Amino acid sequence: GFRMKNRIVVNGFREVDSRMRDIMHEDLDTVLMYFDFAQREGVVRRANHFLSMRTNGLIRDTLFLGDVPKHLQLIQLSAGSFRPPFASSFDARDTIARDFRTGWIDKLYQTTTMFKEGDFRFARIPELEIEVLELPFHSRSDSVLWIMLPDRDAELDRIVKALEPEHFDAIQAHFSMKRAGIVVPVFSIKTEFNATDFLRDTIGLDALFRLRELRFFDDHDSALDGVLHRAAISVHERSAEAG
């Protein structure tokens, strides 16, 4: 299933506020690590190693030297990973380059795809203008992979709309078992989102970016400098890995 690890890297051996330390240990299950930020290369290397190891190697080279300015006193790292095997994996011998067309556009593409025949849970939801194929993971995991496609004459934003939680019951209600041969692409997707402006300006948490609003240390006023979110997923014959 999903695994989460948190680590905070503190500049030098500064004393962290006792209440903040309790929150880190009890609520966030966070490990504190101390390092001299004057050794910027070492800080970057250690942070990137932690993120790579805790995300199945999907998230790499997140921090650079420019992300460790002289005034920086603390880096908080949160890494999640997900890598259960499919309940029934694809045969790698059936993974080849195949042709396909997209929508009504008369344009031919070629990409590496997997193939499998069997019984699958499939749903078509007319009111959402989407079709959904379900690929279950191993029984040890309580998760499944949903592959959603818009109807041929629907826009991609229909998929975004269908991802809203209130539509999940409708999707579940339309599932039925279908005997079919399915073709699924082998693919990887990575995305990056600088959440600083979103947190500060869009949802009104600008106070967190002002001094004296956060109390990380006993002897020093603190504020957030920036927040970065990165995510990746890789789908192949054995699993769908995410980090």
The counted number of beta strands is 11
| Structural class by sheet pairing and helices | alpha+beta
Radius of gyration: 23 Å
Percentage of residues in strands: 35-45%
Summarize the biggest pleated sheet: 5 strands, antiparallel
Shape: elongated
Keywords: Protease inhibitor, Serine protease inhibitor
GO molecular function: serine-type endopeptidase inhibitor activity
Domain Serpin: 3-242
Organism: Anopheles vagus
How are the SSEs placed, and which strands pair?
Layout: E1 3-11, H1 18-27, E2 30-35, H2 40-53, E3 74-81, E4 96-101, E5 108-125, E6 130-136, E7 144-150, H3 157-162, H4 168-174, E8 176-185, E9 187-194, H5 196-202, E10 228-235, E11 240-242
Parallel strand pairs: 1-2
Antiparallel strand pairs: 1-3, 4-5, 5-6, 5-8, 6-7, 9-10, 10-11
Question: Could you describe the 3D structure shown?
Answer:
- The protein has 243 residues and is α+β, with helices and mostly antiparallel strands.
- The mean pLDDT is 86.
- The longest helix has 14 residues.
- It is elongated, with a radius of gyration of 23 Å.
- Strands 4, 5, 6, 7 and 8 form a five-stranded antiparallel sheet that branches. The chain has a three-stranded mixed sheet with strand order 2-1-3. The protein has a three-stranded antiparallel sheet with strand order 9-10-11.
- Helices cover 18% and strands 37% of the residues.
- It has two domains: 106 residues, Antithrombin, subunit I, domain 2 (Antithrombin, Chain I, domain 2, 2-Layer Sandwich); 90 residues, Roll (Alpha-1-antitrypsin, domain 1), CATH 2.30.39.
- It starts with a strand and ends with a strand.
